[in-house]
């Protein structure tokens, strides 16, 4: 399905990002693994190595925006294109009233959840255009109800991110770029431990099932763009 594809996965050091990278590596030509934890990225790389897929580990803090441009230039020099991009990096500090959000935390959440994705799209856009069937998927949240108490920081960035991705999708409808959003279900993660620490583990979805669904959303047969996909 992803034979000879050049793939980029952010948040590849654990959880969804790691699972997606491993699944893509079964047929992909090369995968760029992006994350801040070098040791964890190396673990992902080791798990991929059995699939004979080439790997480039990219230890990168995505809030160092100039380094994103350097990454785009590096990928261009080596592969000239990106066929598959999956953005799994994100963060949530804690739930709290707006007036209790620390300014530093608010800025960090905006920078990683929103601005880094804008910078990635900006840097990767020429590489998408160089691919015959570029596919991108951004992990997000479907904001059905605005102004939910205590979700001021996270939901604000997700709402803005969704708008950004849909705008980019509309701007590129005449190209081959298909970019969509994906809202994961409840699964074992730092996000769950932060937002719903008392959640019954019986209600959680297995990671491998979520990964399978995500991979189905970035296949060459996908014609939708600017849509919000989910697990169901």
What does this entry look like structurally?
There is one protein chain. By secondary structure, the chain is α/β, with parallel strands linked by helices. It has helices at 15-24, 38-49, 65-79, 103-129, 152-171, 190-195, 207-216; strands spanning 6-10, 30-35, 54-59, 84-87, 135-139, 178-183, 228-230. Strands 3-2-1-4-5-6-7 form a seven-stranded parallel β-sheet, with helices on both faces. The chain is globular, with a radius of gyration of 17 Å. The mean pLDDT is 92.
Write the layout of secondary structure elements.
Elements (H helix, E strand, L loop, with lengths): L5 E5 L4 H10 L5 E6 L2 H12 L4 E6 L5 H15 L4 E4 L15 H27 L5 E5 L12 H20 L6 E6 L6 H6 L11 H10 L11 E3 L2
Helix pairs in contact: 1-7, 3-4, 4-5
